[in-house]
Each structure stands twice: as structure tokens, then as C-alpha cells.
Amino acid sequence: MSQNNEMHPRNPYRNKPPDFKALAVEYPEFRKFCQYVSNGKVTFDFKKDAAVRCLTQTLLKKDFNLDVEIPPGHLVPRVPQKLNYCLLIDDLLKANKLTKNVIGIDIGTGTSCIHALIGARQFNWKFIATDGDEKSVRVAHENVAKNGLSSSICVVHVNPDVKTVLMDVVNTIPDTDYAFCMCNPPFFEKGNGDDKFCEDISSSTETYSNRVASEFRTAPHSATFASSAELFVDGGEVAFVNRIIDDSVLLRDRINISESTQQ
């Protein structure tokens, strides 16, 4: 929740970060991860996967009326940063006079499907949300359905092994033009993220975590857990984004704006 001054001017979290004490009073599940200290303030355990997941779910429910399931061991999106990304996209759309019947593509939507859910709920955009992981697609589809947004968001499973990122999706839905595509890509090539993430032996699934200190860094303030598919990709993020660029050039008459972020 840091770097508030760098957030988008229209991001409500910029000037009003989450009030953990108020959230603890209103949401009993969130309260389980809080402790009241002697000065009357509340401390929150950012190093637990369940706690960070509950924070995201609580903010999505309170501020966007979104009920979102995020399975343990999968990436937990930070709501202020994800809203920030959508606001930047909104600026680009307005600058290019693309404000009516907006349809976007979210590449690697993840289990939370957060870009598409916020985009549909907050900005009335429609989405094709893609992912190469079958479990992520299934959970994302369930999240879309239970929030009543199936008419606005179509979740699509794509082959993670093909070189193209956009071509197959766009070509299977003819006669549709897209205002933008957005992406928060996997960051690392397999083996190159070992100084930041290691396999979490406490998990029953193939889960990676940054919560343990290493010779390269101290343990982080806020833990991040993720599956292999969410962290690693052949060639790392540079190669992945280059694939998006290559597809965007070929599809320049179908997609107006292509964007990627590390948020």
C-alpha cells in the first residue's frame, strides 16, 4: 500500500488508503489477521498468504461489490495497483477517443480475473480474459459468473506453448475490434527468479514464495505466493512482451492499444 503519491490522481487509495481498523470492525474474517496494539491502532500480518488474500478479497467486496475467490498458492493481486492500471488504460482510451462500446483483452487473467472484473464493474468495459492455466481459467470463470458479469467477460483458455499470444484469440472471434489489450506478464525465466522466489515446502501444491530471506535480500514486508505458471515463462517477461508486440503489429487494425505493466 506504499507509494501512494505515485498513484493515479483519480485513484481513491492515493489519498485514502485502506483503514484496517474499520475493516476489522466490519469484516470478521479480516479481523482474524489483525491485532490491536496499545496505542489503539491495528497491525496486520502481511507475511501470511491467507492474510494478504483476505485483504484483497475484503477490499474488492467493500469498494467494488465484487465477491472473488483466490485459491491458496496463487498470486494475490494488490487492489490499489490493479485499479491504478485500469485508470491508466482509461486515460489512454479517452486520449484516443475510444470511449464507446469498449472491448479489451486481458492476457494472463489469473484466478482472480481482477483486471476484467474491475474494468467491467467500474468502467463498463467488456473483456476477453485469457489464461494458459486450466485451473486459473476455471476459477476465473466462476468469479465472473458469481458476480453477474458473464455478459461482459468471456474467459478463454489458450495454449501456453504456442509462440503467439494474441493471434489465436483474436482470430477465433471474427468481426470484433478491440480497444486495448493489457497484461501483467510472468516475470522470470525458469531458474532466473531463484534469488526472489523459492518453492514453498509447506504447501501441498507446486507453490513459490518470496517470504524467506536469501543471500541476495532480506525477507519482504509483504509475502507473495504464486504458482509456477504465474511466475515463469520461456525467455522471461522481455520475451513474453516481445511476443505481444509482434502480434500487435500484425493485428494493428484489430487492436488499438497494447499495454503491459509490472504492477
UniProtKB/TrEMBL annotation:
<dbReference type="InterPro" id="IPR017182">
    <property type="entry name" value="METTL16/PsiM"/>
</dbReference>
<dbReference type="InterPro" id="IPR010286">
    <property type="entry name" value="METTL16/RlmF"/>
</dbReference>
<keyword id="KW-0949">S-adenosyl-L-methionine</keyword>
<dbReference type="GO" id="GO:0120048">
    <property type="term" value="F:U6 snRNA (adenine-(43)-N(6))-methyltransferase activity"/>
</dbReference>
<feature type="binding site">
    <location>
        <position position="108"/>
    </location>
    <ligand>
        <name>S-adenosyl-L-methionine</name>
    </ligand>
</feature>
<comment type="similarity">
    <text>Belongs to the methyltransferase superfamily. METTL16/RlmF family.</text>
</comment>
<dbReference type="GO" id="GO:0032259">
    <property type="term" value="P:methylation"/>
</dbReference>
<protein>
    <recommendedName>
        <fullName>U6 snRNA m(6)A methyltransferase</fullName>
        <ecNumber>2.1.1.346</ecNumber>
    </recommendedName>
</protein>
<feature type="binding site">
    <location>
        <position position="131"/>
    </location>
    <ligand>
        <name>S-adenosyl-L-methionine</name>
    </ligand>
</feature>
<keyword id="KW-0808">Transferase</keyword>
<feature type="binding site">
    <location>
        <position position="184"/>
    </location>
    <ligand>
        <name>S-adenosyl-L-methionine</name>
    </ligand>
</feature>
<dbReference type="Pfam" id="PF05971">
    <property type="entry name" value="Methyltransf_10"/>
</dbReference>
<dbReference type="InterPro" id="IPR029063">
    <property type="entry name" value="SAM-dependent_MTases_sf"/>
</dbReference>
<keyword id="KW-0489">Methyltransferase</keyword>
<feature type="binding site">
    <location>
        <position position="82"/>
    </location>
    <ligand>
        <name>S-adenosyl-L-methionine</name>
    </ligand>
</feature>
